[in-house]
Amino acid sequence: MQNKWDISDSLWLAMLLSLSGGLMDSYSYLERGGVFANAQTGNILLFSVNLTTDNFTAAIHYIFPVIAFAVGIALASILQFRYENLPHVRWRQIVVLVEALLFFYVAFIPQSLNLLANSLISLACGAQVESFRKIRNTGVEMPIATTMCIGNLRSGVHAMLEYRLTKDKIAFKKGLFYFAVIAGFAFGAICGNFLIGFGGEKAILASGLVMLIAFSVMNSK
């Protein structure tokens, strides 16, 4: 049975985190001015396009989430460096709890401060990307991303092709895991779109709730 440390790398936790990732991205894009919380490639593209058309105000709205995402990665790395080897400190639980608190705060930020809201969400995404980078499940270990799909899609297709060519059951299992995480992200995006229709800017509270569930799962035996 997995211990408290192993749970951080479990498929079920990755599914929860990817669900939250999809919800975050749909929320920031649909409710907070067309900015991506996770897809920083899209933000860099839109920043560059707006910069070249002298639309500096819009450009700022796209570049600040990119910077916040990088800060989130750095903060998570610092936490890991300082606390990873301490037996009574679960640094990744700290990341998840801080994410939940940030989402609860964002829910009450007005539309006039969308730049702040999107930056805080992107900071949380960056921390999550850095903190949860692999799955260990029944003898299978594999890199994973819980806030974006392109790497998982590439790895999933590669694993399924490997299974088709070699009949390696481990490759097949990896492929299923990758597509399960992608499905979790897509479901989160669907939920985000649905909840925005009811709660508007408060819809991000659902993502905070998911992170609290993940926090509880990580604390279980």
Describe the structure.
The chain is mostly helical. The chain has a single domain (6-218), classed as Up-down Bundle (Growth Hormone, Chain: A), CATH 1.20.1250. The chain is 71% helix and 4% strand. The chain has 8 helices and 2 strands. A two-stranded antiparallel ribbon has the order 1-2. Helix 1 (11-31) runs antiparallel to helix 5, helix 1 packs antiparallel against helix 8 and helix 3 (56-83) runs parallel beside helix 5. The protein is globular, with a radius of gyration of 18 Å. The protein starts with 10 loop residues before the first helix and ends with a helix.
Secondary-structure map:
Blueprint lengths: L10 H21 L8 H13 L3 H28 L7 H16 L7 H18 L2 E4 L2 E4 L6 H17 L2 H31 L5 H14 L3
Antiparallel strand pairs: 1-2
Helix pairs in contact: 1-5, 1-7, 1-8, 2-3, 3-5, 4-5, 4-8, 6-7
**Spatial sequence of strands, sheet with the most strands:** 1-2
Q: Strand fraction band?
A: under 5%
Euclidean distance between termini CA atoms: 8 Å
CATH topology (level 3) name: Growth Hormone, Chain: A
Number of DSSP-assigned strands: 2
Please name the CATH architecture: Up-down Bundle
User: How much helix is in the residues?
Assistant: over 70%
The chain-level structural class is: mainly alpha
Number of helices, where a helix is a run of at least 4 consecutive DSSP H or I residues? 8
The profile of the biggest β sheet is: 2 strands, antiparallel
- What's the CATH first level? Mainly Alpha
Low-pLDDT residue intervals, each spanning 5 or more residues: 1-5
